[in-house]
Amino acid sequence: MNKAEIIYSVTEESGEARDNVIPFIAYHTPAPKRCLDMLLAKYYGEKFCSEVKMPVPEKHVTPVLSVPLAAARIMMVTDGGLVPKGNPDCLPPSNAREFHAYGFGFAERFKAEEYEVSHQGYDHGDVDEDPNRLLPLDILREMTRAGEIGGVYPRFLSTTGVMMPSETARRIGREIAVRVSACSIDAVLIVSTCGTSTRCGACIALALEDRGIPAVQITNLTEIAWSMGVRHVEKGASVGSPVGFAGGTPTAAAHRLLGAAQAVRGLCLDVPDDA
Description:
This protein is of the alpha/beta class. It has two domains: about 5-45, no CATH class; about 70-270, Rossmann fold, CATH 3.40.50. Helices cover about 30% and strands about 15% of the residues. The chain has helices spanning about 30-45, 125-130, 135-145, 165-180, 195-210, 220-230, 250-265, and strands at about 75-80, 80-85, 100-105, 115, 150-160, 185-190, 215-220, 235. The strands form two sheets. A six-stranded mixed sheet has the order 3-5-1-6-7-8, with helices on both faces. Strand 6 (about 185-190), helix 5 and strand 7 form a beta-alpha-beta unit. Helix 4 (about 165-180) packs across helix 5 (about 195-210). The longest helix is centred in the middle third of the chain and has 16 residues, at about 165-180.
């Protein structure tokens, strides 16, 4: 291979090659073949090198609840683009630059006729049918009645994380952390959808934790959240329906309750950063 066939990869934000990026992406070989070669090498236990270098998370302290869970007031945040019908703030379906807050008062659950999704990064048919599969208000209300948590903050925050650059996600995370720190809450439940949305949700979680606010992230793509440095992570049911599968069967309802409840209970766990 000659020098003309070697192209240096670049970091997303610097735009220049560095020691921590892969310096040998052979673009003369089609991407599908490179991908298959890598997969086979991994399968057979041979050496291979990814073309994408994941950042090493900075040292980060993961806070835990400072009050008993039964007294904790929980706020919900999502990068999955949930908005009231008509999308009153025109939240874009991709590459959002902002987040919005929406109140729901004393509602027991989110109603399909009152909400929609502005997000082109996942199939949101299940969420359109039941928005509680994205933000589990119904389950948090049930946990409140059972005395497991202290209550639910009556507003949720929403953004669209798909195709959002890392720097934008970190900025939005910091802005959300400032907003949340002024609210009367004890912890935050973040629900994420697709890959870049999960990265966005992770940035929000880390910003909250930097302010000492415990956060837990539900996502089907747990490795992305973990690689970003989030330690309170719960496996979601699927990318398009993070909090429970479609269908009104008792089994589906039990799965939804178990997943969301485990996530909230995880706020009490002291997880080592290097776990």
